[in-house]
Amino acid sequence: MQVDPLSSTLSALADPTRRAIIARLATGEATVNELAEPFDMSLPAISKHLKVLERAKLISRGRNAQWRPCRLEPEPLKALDNWLEEYRQLWDRRLDRLEDYLATLQAKDETKEDE
């Protein structure tokens, strides 16, 4: 069964360790050892997290002799941001309407106080 890319991205980002890895890779390439350093877990456990991120196409691994740097791949994050933007706009419109409504109520209260 093929999972859609957005679901893969969201699933991969559901884990705080993987989000921390993504945040680290946002600053530049890193080796598995460098990525594992801040975590209290084994290298095989970190490798499992990296495989999840790789399957979701959030990271890629290069090959430079013995060094296999991991790097962030921004496209899935851009797709997620585009999807979220629709909801941002929806909530912005709703909050704007709420603000207008509250301003109307406040104006009515001020009018009553002036009477």
What is the element layout, followed by pairings?
Elements: H1 5-13, H2 16-25, H3 32-36, H4 43-55, E1 59-61, E2 70-72, H5 75-114
Antiparallel strand pairs: 1-2
Helix pairs in contact: 1-4, 1-5
Mind explaining what this structure looks like?
- By secondary structure, the protein is mostly helical.
- Helix content is 67%, strand content 5%.
- The protein has helices spanning 5-13, 16-25, 32-36, 43-55, 75-114; strands spanning 59-61, 70-72.
- Helix 1 (5-13) packs antiparallel against helix 4 (43-55) and helix 1 (5-13) packs across helix 5 (75-114).
- The N and C termini lie far apart (69 Å).
- The model has no long low-confidence stretch (mean pLDDT 91).
In short:
This protein is mainly alpha-helical and 115 residues long.
Mean residue pLDDT: 91
> Kindly, what is the distance between the CA atoms of the first and last residues, rounded to a whole number of angstroms?
69 Å
Rg, Å, rounded? 23 Å
Q: Can you count the helices?
A: 5
Q: Write down the overall geometry.
A: elongated
Q: Which structural class fits the helix and strand makeup?
A: mainly alpha
Portion of residues in beta strands equals 5-15%
Main sheet: strands, sense, barrel: 2 strands, antiparallel
Q: In sequence order, what are the helices and strands, one letter per element?
A: HHHHEEH
Helical fraction equals 55-70%
Q: Looking across the biggest beta sheet, what order are the strands in?
A: 1-2
pLDDT < 50 stretches:
none
According to DSSP, the number of beta strands is 2
